[in-house]
Amino acid sequence: MKNLENKTIFITGGSRGIGKAIALRAARDGANIVVAAKTDKPHPKLPGTIHSAAEEIENAGGKALALKLDVRDEHQVEEALKDAAAHFGGIDIIVNNASAITLLGTEQLSMKRYDLMMSVNVRGTFACSKAALPFLKKAENPHILNLAPPLNLNQEWFRDHCAYTISKYGMSMCVLGMAAEFREHGIAVNALWPRTVIATAAINMLGGRVKPENCRNEQIMADAAHAVLVSDSKTVSGQFFIDESVLRKRGVTDFDQYAIQPGAPLLKDLFLDE
């Protein structure tokens, strides 16, 4: 498959950041995008709403449906998937992008923040994938794509933020398990992770340790996600893709186009040893 024309893509956390960038890249192909996120009214600290994202998607050439969704609520998830499928006549792709992050050690982290990360990252991913199954089984080239890292058991990645690591690795383990479980249905389940930190609103949660000029923009993740989602779901599953590697294999050589400040040193993202 060369593009995502007429494919229906359900993206959690799609009102801003990487989720919105993936949506806009798919919209250029003429895809149907379901923007499923919590922000339906302007946020005092974060840009964008499901409605502003939907407008951008329409302007980019796609069709959009804005749905307010808290992925922690399985009933909301089930209804959102049903509404999306009814609106567009089915669902072809789920992008589990919604994520919560707090990089604190065990002693400093509140249980409220612990529960938030587990509920959004692991439970939300599981719930959305589960609720989408009846629709994905009917799709021609069905994909689930989790924004999750490769599983790396180096203690470095647990030492300073054990709870966040557990929550993201939970998303990664969904890839391992569901890829095997859904293979008989031809449903691909893969993960995508950036080699460098991406300059989104989430870097504000890193306590000032990351400067935007040492980051890449969201477009590199959008282009890499597009490359994964147009692949054959029956032959490409259970993979942990890194954005830069995906694009290099497809002939991309100019990565300055993705840099916030071309030529500046780039900061490696979490969970990657090399």
The geometry reads as globular
Strand content: 5-15%
Radius of gyration: 17 Å
Q: SSE string, helix = H, strand = E?
A: EHEHEHEHEHHEHEH
Helical/strand content category = alpha/beta
Give average pLDDT, whole number. 96
Main sheet: strand order: 3-2-1-4-5-6-7
User: Quick one: biggest sheet?
Assistant: 7 strands, parallel
Beta strand count: 7
Low-confidence stretches: none
Distance between the termini: 32 Å
Multimeric organization: single chain
Q: Kindly state the percentage of residues in helix.
A: 25-40%
What's this, in brief?
The protein has eight helices and seven strands; from the N terminus they run βαβαβαβαβααβαβα. With 274 residues, the protein is an alpha/beta fold.
Mind sketching the topology for me?
Elements: E1 8-12, H1 17-27, E2 32-37, H2 50-59, E3 63-68, H3 74-88, E4 93-96, H4 111-136, E5 143-146, H5 156-159, H6 162-181, E6 188-193, H7 219-229, E7 240-242, H8 243-249
Parallel strand pairs: 1-2, 1-4, 2-3, 4-5, 5-6, 6-7
Helix pairs in contact: 1-2, 1-7, 3-4, 4-6, 7-8
